[in-house]
Design goal:
It is a single chain. With about 725 residues, the chain is of the alpha+beta class. The chain has 21 helices and 40 strands. Helix 8 packs across helix 16 (about 590-600). The protein is globular and about 95 Å long. Mean pLDDT is about 85; it is low at about 1-60 and about 710-720.
């Protein structure tokens, strides 16, 4: 032992011992020696209590045990100062080899950290998703350490968390240019060198003053420290000479990190505020084995090819610019053709299903959104009100439902009018932060395919089924097959953000679940995903990039009819309250176009393609007149055909049409002019076929009317086969 009964301090093998007096319940004096481990890193010295024992006045040391409760409820005693690694070894050697971290009472404990208290304990292993998260978190620290070695005292650091599919670290290089992808090989080489050093990663707690001194040269870390409560101890993680602010949850040493890759850089405002400095966000990913990393990099390469922003630029579909305003998409003629086709399609389908389409203002009186509750619940996502100077405040609408309630209330409705279905391609505005804006997927102005139905209680199930069938039919037309149903409930542990009416919530959730059960549909349930006014059914789709997002929704709403005093005259001549059903079929035009662009990889089916037919003459002088006349004929049939009469080689023009993924390329030469035929080359195929002009037109119109692909090879090309 490194100290005597009187607590005289001695230092042995990196430990210091001291003591203090305590009294037991009977009034007998005891001394409690405390052994502190000394950790020296750079110019900082840390001491932390790792062993606490009790000695009586005779000098006998009595080491107390800690009681550990495992996830299965089993309990076991271990000596004070036991480490998670020792606990893992006591269970099995294989568990010890794959255990990444311990967790005591919900707090991370490093595998080599001493535990002086007991409680609920679990081991996080490589097999757990959480284990992968800890690995990625650790790689962000490894990245920072490598940067410090390469660029000492030149970089300030923001935060470096794990994220879905990887990690990032926000950096601010104060000298020279910011970090670029060209520097990744050099940085990764340094990271691998640190991995070989197998530096232990140790968590410690220090005081605020110590932390402020330690990070005094980094303004971002100082800001984070100052934001913590005044009496809170601050956690750090130490690996070699490198120190990080951190709450724990890291691998035992840098040697555990084997397979990683830096992937990209992007600008990001400090703490997400546009008024703050722009930092350089370095992204990366990591896995436990090389095969998983290789698979992820291939997936990312595919994702890059499918990125709707890249395809949008290549095919001139849309653009965004600072001159116009961030998050405000400008639709070019090609993109407008796709959007116009979507809009006409969904309006026609909804009219066939009994919806009455309307137009309502994109501006409304602010009081409308106060009455609906949007102002209370979504104020942070709404643009500031506009003061008209006469006491009226106008607001860019964040939702269409209050407008559709006004449509319903404009006339007194009877039970004979129900279900009353109203729909609109309604433009909305959201106050999205700059850092969240992405192409067409996240914008500040959007047009939602929105609809609302007002029904009597006994009509809910039939209307629910009718809406769901419309969704399924629409999905078939777009060849959307990978989706699942989610029943979204409020979070019973956090009800403040929802309308306060327990009876209404229980009734609505029970009714929605009952309808799904009656229809014998598979679904999963998710608490905390409901709208503030009621539960909903969400249709979750798999994106082409491997993620999941909500495409369609059906929401039961008992609240807004109450708030707006919405009524109908029943068969008894009395006023009754209808139920309001919110539903969206194909989301916003912006997001749905982005989704389809990535799903089709830019090779849109004929009926959606911005250019359906490209007509190319072999010789402009000899065949141009025929080609132009054919173009005019097809355009009169509402076919998006264009004549390419540029003075270029025929092979180049054909390749250009293929690069633009135009479904049909027609070549016109002497035989075609003489026989009134066309030579057809379809996207994705090297083969050609010859048809009469009449037959081609008939087949093309059928292709468009059936919402079909141009041909099997096109489908294979899109799927990468």
């Amino acid at each position: 032992m490194c100290c005597d009964i009187n607590g005289n301090v001695s230092r042995v093998k990196g430990y210091e011992c001291s003591s203090y007096a305590v009294m037991n319940s009977g009034g007998t004096a005891y001394k409690r020696p405390v052994i502190r481990k000394i950790l020296m890193t750079g110019r900082f010295l840390f001491m932390t209590d790792v062993i606490e024992s009790t000695t009586d006045i005779k000098g006998e040391i009595i080491m107390a045990d800690v009681q550990i409760t495992f996830p299965d409820g089993a309990e076991k005693s271990f000596p004070v100062n036991v480490t998670p690694l020792e606990i893992a070894k006591s269970i099995s050697s294989s568990l010890a080899k794959k255990a990444v971290s311990g967790k005591l009472n919900g707090q991370y404990v490093g595998m080599n950290d001493a535990m002086t208290t007991g409680g609920n304990f679990e081991l996080i292993t490589k097999d757990d998703e959480e284990g992968l998260q800890l690995l990625r978190h650790s790689v962000s620290h490894l990245l920072a350490q490598a940067l410090n070695r390469l660029y000492p005292d030149q970089i300030h650091y923001g935060v470096g968390p794990f994220i879905a599919n990887g990690f990032y670290y926000d950096t601010d290089k104060v000298e020279g240019n910011q970090i670029s992808v060209d520097q990744f090989p050099e940085i990764e080489k340094m990271m691998k060198r640190i991995v070989k050093e197998n530096l232990p990663i140790v968590s410690r707690e220090i005081s605020r003053d110590e932390a402020l001194e330690m990070f005094k040269n980094d303004p971002y870390k100082i800001e984070l420290i100052n934001d913590l409560p005044a009496d809170e101890h601050i956690s750090i993680a130490v690996q070699g000479e490198h120190v990080e602010l951190d709450r724990g949850g890291l691998v035992p040493s840098t040697g555990w990190i084997k397979h990683f890759k830096l992937t990209s850089v992007a600008g990001a405002y400090w703490r997400g505020k546009s008024s703050n400095p722009m930092l350089q966000r370095i992204y990366g990913t990591a896995f436990w084995n090389a095969d998983d990393l290789d698979a992820e990099m291939k997936r990312r390469a595919e994702a890059k090819e499918r990125d709707h922003r890249k395809i949008g630029a290549d095919q001139d579909l849309f653009f965004t610019s600072q001159e116009v305003g961030s998050g405000l998409a400008v639709w070019m003629p090609n993109g407008a053709a796709i959007r116009r086709t979507l809009e006409r399609y969904i309006v026609d389908r909804e009219v066939q299903d009994g919806y009455q389409h309307v137009y309502t203002p994109v501006l409304s009186n602010l009081n409308l959104y106060k009455q609906s509750g949007h102002w209370d619940h979504y104020r942070d996502d709404m643009f500031p009100p506009m003061d008209m100077g006469d006491g009226e405040f106008l607001e860019l609408r964040p939702m269409n439902c209050p407008s559709h309630i006004m449509v319903y209330k404009h006339h007194q409705r009877s039970y004979r009018d129900l279900p009353f279905r109203v729909a609109e391609l309604g433009m909305m505005h959201r106050y999205e932060k700059s850092g969240a804006l992405t192409g067409l997927s996240r914008v500040r102005e959007m047009t939602l395919n929105d609809g609302h139905t007002f029904v009597m209680l006994d009509q809910i199930e039939d209307e629910f089924k009718k809406i769901l069938q419309l969704m399924v039919d629409v999905y078939k037309d777009f060849d959307i097959t990978d989706y699942r149903f989610r029943l979204s409930y409020r979070d019973p542990k956090n009800t403040e953000k929802y309308f306060d009416d327990d009876e209404m919530w229980e009734k609505a959730q029970r009714m929605l679940k009952g309808a799904m059960d009656d229809m014998d549909l598979e679904y999963f349930e998710a608490e905390g995903e409901a709208a503030f006014y009621g539960p909903k059914l969400d249709v979750q789709i798999k994106t082409a990039l491997g993620g999941e997002e909500t495409l369609s929704t059906i929401q039961l709403d008992f609240l807004l009819p109450e708030r707006f005093d919405v009524t109908y005259v029943g068969s008894d001549g009395e006023l009754h309250r209808p139920v309001m059903i919110h539903r969206g079929i194909i989301s916003t035009m912006e997001r749905f176009t982005a989704y389809l662009t990535e799903m089709y990889k830019g090779a849109f089916p004929t009926w959606l393609a911005p250019h359906q037919v490209r007509i190319i003459p072999v010789n402009r002088e000899a065949h141009g007149e025929f080609a132009q006349a054919l173009t005019d004929r097809l355009v009169k049939q509402d076919i998006r055909a264009d004549y390419d009469g540029r003075n270029e080689k025929l092979g180049y023009l054909i390749r250009n049409a293929q690069s633009l993924k135009i479904p049909y390329t027609l070549v016109i030469g002497d035989e075609e002019v003489s026989n009134d035929t066309v030579t057809i080359r379809r996207f994705g195929s090297r083969d050609t076929s010859v048809k009469s002009v009449d037959q081609f037109e008939t087949d093309l119109l059928a292709d468009i009317a059936n919402h079909s692909r141009a041909l099997d090879t096109l489908e294979k090309a899109v799927k990468g086969e």
